[in-house]
Amino acid sequence: MPEVRSYEAYCSVAKALDLVGERWTLLIVRELMISGPSRYTDLLHGLPGIASNLLVDRLKELEEVGLVNREVAPPPIATSLFHLTDRGHALKPILEELGRWGAPLMENPSGKEAFQSHWLVFPMELHLVDHTPKRPPIKIELRTGEEPMVVETVNGQIRTHRGSADNPNVILEGRPGLILGLLTGRLPLDEARRRGLKLSGDTAVLKRVIPAPD
Amino acid sequence: MPEVRSYEAYCSVAKALDLVGERWTLLIVRELMISGPSRYTDLLHGLPGIASNLLVDRLKELEEVGLVNREVAPPPIATSLFHLTDRGHALKPILEELGRWGAPLMENPSGKEAFQSHWLVFPMELHLVDHTPKRPPIKIELRTGEEPMVVETVNGQIRTHRGSADNPNVILEGRPGLILGLLTGRLPLDEARRRGLKLSGDTAVLKRVIPAPD
DNA sequence: CGGCATCCTCTTTGATACTG
DNA sequence: CAGTATCAAAGAGGATGCCG
């Protein structure tokens, strides 16, 4: 019974919010954007705090308005996958701007927020840059949260994904706020280390991707 | 009593939505962005459908989190003005991306949505361009909704504001969907005219600001 | 009028428990 | 795993009242 409530206003911002302005909706889109096609329970885990029935409702609404498709997997798998349509993917700039605007709010973690390491994907690709794209690619492994993540340079682009690198140039380990602070250029390396960040490997390569201080 | 509900997630998108993700919040910001410092009742009129108590709540929350300031006017005026802080203004890219994403949803008006002419400001500045900035500036008057609006070129920029132009190059009059369709390049001039748009003056100047068809 | 506060009803959500 | 079902709490919408 998902009923799509509308502002009933002839304004494109209002129309957009009619579709993605409800609670949890954009975070579900964020999950699908970061992780690609996902199962119901993957989404449930990636959205700590959401009620299971609410996730069902939202997925139905998103399907109804054409932002998500449900791919019913063939028998052996016994599960189905939710993935973004093109129109759903087109929400990326909105998430990016929200993430950019929200970045300063990450400076003082309350400590009681939930955290999932794959949430780092957005900030990494938003803030990091490859200053010297012609040099051999580098890999950075991040160890924070429940699973490791890899940040790498792929011809001038920053790519971030789950998993371990087989031979990373550097490994960073510590609280997410420290990794984020360091890699977004807000926290100097020695300060991050002083606050508990552990670094191993060739820390010099970090300069290559950390943005210039303003 | 406004309690700021949080997703409690260490993710900048979630943090942003903690502050501006509630119902009506971004539309209030849109109003303040378009109209500048506004009185309570101006906002109430610009947000058809909002409950008066909800507007009060949201304004308090926005004040609390530092996105809006209340300027208590001196005695003779007996009213106060709400205006965006710098941090509030910084939400502009988010509204722009929402507006851009929502634009296709404007193609088929249901006809029963509310409309206010000043809502045209965003789409105009988002879609129109001045193809020949060196030629003398032009002014277009739009007559739709409750008050006229003026679109003008100011050294290469598109400016849109309330009011009448004293000597506009063109005057467009008709349903907002037609004006929007024409000026965003989706509707050819003769088609718009056939559907009821009235044009007077030098319609040739329209080519100067209508975006190239893709 | 402008700027709320109150009261009431209805809907949405959050938390938890249960099922094929 | 992938949802349903249930129920209490919070939020939204609408009407009206109050006060300078």
Quick recap:
The structure is a homodimer of 214-residue chains. Chain A has nine helices and seven strands.
Comma- or semicolon-separated keywords:
homodimer; 214 residues; alpha+beta; Arc Repressor Mutant, subunit A; Nonspecific Lipid-transfer Protein, Chain A; 2 domains; five-stranded mixed beta sheet; two-stranded antiparallel sheet; 9 helices; globular; DNA-binding
Task: Give structural notes.
With about 210 residues, chain A is α+β, with helices and mostly antiparallel strands. The first copy, chain A, folds into two domains: about 10-90, Winged helix-like DNA-binding domain superfamily/Winged helix DNA-binding domain (Arc Repressor Mutant, subunit A, Orthogonal Bundle); about 110-210, 2-Layer Sandwich (Nonspecific Lipid-transfer Protein, Chain A). Chain A contains nine helices and seven strands. Chain A has helices at about 10-20, 25-35, 40-45, 50-65, 85-90, 90-100, 120-125, 175-185, 190-195, and strands at about 70, 80-85, 140-145, 150-155, 155-160, 170-175, 200. In chain A, the strands form two sheets. Chain A has a five-stranded mixed sheet with strand order 5-4-3-6-7, with helices on one face. In chain A, strands 1-2 form a two-stranded antiparallel ribbon. In chain A, strand 1 (about 70) and strand 2 (about 80-85) form a beta hairpin. The first copy, chain A, is globular and about 55 Å long. The N and C termini of chain A lie far apart (about 50 Å). The model of chain A has no long low-confidence stretch (mean pLDDT about 95). Chains A and B meet through helix 1, helix 2 and helix 6 of A and helix 1, helix 2 and helix 6 of B. The first copy, chain A, binds a DNA duplex (20 and 20 nucleotides) through helix 3 and helix 4.
